[in-house]
# Entry
Amino acid sequence: MTKSMRFEIVRLDDADGTATDRLIADAETVREVVQAAARTGERLLIRPCPTV
# Structure
């Protein structure tokens, strides 16, 4: 079985950069979230999620 890489996506507040929401997602979902954020100007922090 192949394991897909997982990422943590953190949405950041526009005013002060604090984390407002977190999501663990696969690469395809990351791509979709990044595209949506690019359209709206939303700030994101994306980093690899450690494997369990």
The first helix runs from residue 27 to 40. The radius of gyration is 12 Å. Strands lie at 6-12, 19-26, 43-48.
